[in-house]
Amino acid sequence: MRNESGFGEIMDRVLIRQLKIDTVIGIYEWEKKIHQTLLIDLDMAWDNKPAADSDDYQYALCYETVSNRLTALITEKPIELIETIAEMIATCLMDEFDVPWLKVTVMKPGAVPNVAAVGVEIERGYC
């Protein structure tokens, strides 16, 4: 993402930490009958300067709108893999919110005995 002069990268990011989503997730038959919690962390490249300079919400990336959209996306149908969820999130944010770069972390607490959580992390796009 270039700044207004066309030079240099904008390093601004909008962050969402531990978005908690209860959904049907897993490969085992017993998992397909229960809801489990996922924790989502997002780092999204976004030029925050227009919003900061104008103090105008229309130039901001709305955390609540993003959180609500991702919750609806992830809970609309059962999914087997957290890898699939990470890709779905990336596609949604880039296509629907025009986020040019992002890092998505999807954690599944309690999925493996003696482990706090397992997860995947992906990066997509460019700054």
TrEMBL record:
Enzyme class name: lyase
GO molecular function, one term: dihydroneopterin aldolase activity
Coiled-coil region list: none
Keywords: Folate biosynthesis, Isomerase, Lyase
Reactions accelerated catalytically: 7,8-dihydroneopterin = 6-hydroxymethyl-7,8-dihydropterin + glycolaldehyde; 7,8-dihydroneopterin = 7,8-dihydromonapterin
Annotated EC: 4.1.2.25
Annotated ranges, domain Dihydroneopterin aldolase/epimerase: 14-124
Pathway: Cofactor biosynthesis; tetrahydrofolate biosynthesis; 2-amino-4-hydroxy-6-hydroxymethyl-7,8-dihydropteridine diphosphate from 7,8-dihydroneopterin triphosphate: step 3/4
GO terms under biological process: folic acid biosynthetic process; tetrahydrofolate biosynthetic process
GO cellular component: cytoplasm
Family the UniProt entry places it in: Belongs to the DHNA family.
Role, per record: Catalyzes the conversion of 7,8-dihydroneopterin to 6-hydroxymethyl-7,8-dihydropterin.
NCBIfam families assigned: folB (TIGR00525), folB_dom (TIGR00526)
Name by which UniProt lists this protein: 7,8-dihydroneopterin aldolase
Organism: Shewanella benthica KT99
